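Please check this one:

***
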Amino acid sequence: MLYDPNVLKTVPDCRLALERAIQAGEAEFVKPLYVRLAQLGGADYSDPLEAAFHSLLTVYEQTLRRGRANRVRIKLKNLGGGASAVEKILIGWCRAKRMSSGFERMVEFGLKDRVGEYIVGIDFPARFPSEVVEAARAKLIKYDIVTADELSQLIAPPRN
């Protein structure tokens, strides 16, 4: 293997490995490197929702040419940062009629489970109002992130 993602300890190291894998045309290494980048991007947050959001943001920024999602970061700062600000941003994304360019880029790069709607509708539905969760799930189905059957399996309560 060209890169072992698990040995990478920092976001910059992971970004460098990703750039090298892409330049070398080693497509099979790219997805595992994105997964590791996501892990590292959320590592400094104790709140799991906040960690998931920053994981998403770190990976999204890697897909950009300029490398910074300034509008998202400014909004996060203007909302006071923290989990409450993350919740407000995710609610806005889920309620939006159109898909954001970030959503499209994440899907384009095969990172469907890193979109905000997935975080809300599947990973943390208990943290959001039910109408927001339903909007998130509807978008996931509409944009072929998951099928209705997959969604029902993902949100099914665990069996004892």
Remarks:
- The chain has nine helices and no strands.
- Residues 57 and 73 are 9 Å apart (CA to CA).
- The chain has a mean pLDDT of 87.
- Residues 48-63 form the longest helix (16 residues).
